[in-house]
Design a protein that fits this description.
The chain has 298 residues and is of the alpha+beta class. 26% of the residues lie in helices and 36% in strands. It is built from 4 helices and 14 strands. The N and C termini lie far apart (50 Å).
């Protein structure tokens, strides 16, 4: 990477971080009205914090994810005075932060979306020496999808197209269904399907069995709706048992319809919807081996 590109990337990241922090500060003031005007950056040396407040600080960057994008750790620390409840107040505010930010999609003033994931508390409750207030630090992962600058259409991936088409038909037009990566400005409720594994095995002398492992991410604003949708997709895929795909790649295949079979499908309702995905799906199909001429009928 050239020096110019490095500088451009650093400036872009700095601007993005500024927008994210500003958006989070505004969100915190809404979640906890007592903090309105008192959501602060890390205080300077010798500066004493006054009254109920919260401090927002960026921590380490995390390696980018192919489907989740840029990742950064942020610490949010609520501060409560002893006369306002001390530890009990910090506990109550922490619960509000977790409920109000975990797996929540926020949009900054530039129109870019990002998602917050609660990662736990980084240390025990402690007393701030300067102000005498009690505090703890809550860690959140901030995930920012990154567009490549061009619209990537998966024209060659018939399996993904079939899976996306089936999901859209099953859930309806108010859902967004994505493939391979969360796009910038993604919407909710939404489902992301991404390919996690691929394998082949011999099926007799003239055929190969192709297996693909897919991960499904179901992302909504409501935990009940998320669980209901996961259950619905798992049950209906099991009932469906196969998906129709339209062959591409030449006139000899044009318009041909073949099928992939639902081999196995499971769900983990506790996993991180945005980063890890809750549905594990295996699809399979038999194809003839190169050099053998055989016909498969749908």
């Amino acid at each position: 990477m050239s020096m110019r590109n490095e500088i451009s990337t650093a400036v872009s990241t700095s601007k993005m971080s500024t927008l994210i922090k500003k958006t989070l500060k505004q969100k915190l003031a809404v979640l906890v009205p007592d903090w309105d005007g008192h959501v602060l950056d890390v205080p300077a040396s010798g500066e004493v914090l006054a009254g109920p407040c919260a401090v927002v600080a960026f921590a380490e960057e995390v390696p980018k994810s192919a489907w989740a994008g840029y990742r950064r750790i942020i610490k949010i620390s609520p501060y409560a005075r002893p006369e306002d409840g001390g530890a009990e107040q910090v506990e109550a505010w922490s619960a509000l932060l977790i409920e109000g930010l975990h797996q929540v999609r926020l949009v900054d003033e530039a129109g870019e979306a990002f998602t917050c994931i609660y990662l736990g508390s980084s240390d025990s409750d402690r007393v701030d020496a300067g102000s005498g207030t009690l505090t703890r630090s809550l860690r959140f992962g901030v995930y920012v999808p990154e567009d490549s600058g061009t619209a990537l259409v998966e024209t060659e991936d018939a399996w993904l197209a079939a899976l996306q088409g089936w999901t859209q038909q099953e859930l309806g037009s108010n859902w967004s269904v994505y493939g391979n990566a969360w796009p910038g400005g993604y919407e909710m409720p939404s489902v992301l399907w991404r390919l996690a594994g691929y394998s082949t095995s011999m099926a007799g002398t003239s055929a190969l069995e192709v297996r693909q492992q897919w991960i499904g991410h179901v992302l909504t604003d409501h935990s009940v709706l998320t669980r209901q949708t996961i259950t619905r997709l798992v049950e209906q895929l099991a009932v469906q048992s196969r998906l129709a795909i339209t062959e591409t790649g030449g006139k000899e295949h044009e318009g041909n319809t073949r099928y992939v079979t639902v081999d196995e499908i499971t769900a983990d309702l506790q996993t991180d919807a945005y980063l890890n995905g809750q549905i594990h799906l295996t699809l399979q199909q038999r194809i003839h081996r190169p050099g053998y001429k055989c016909t498969f009928h749908s």
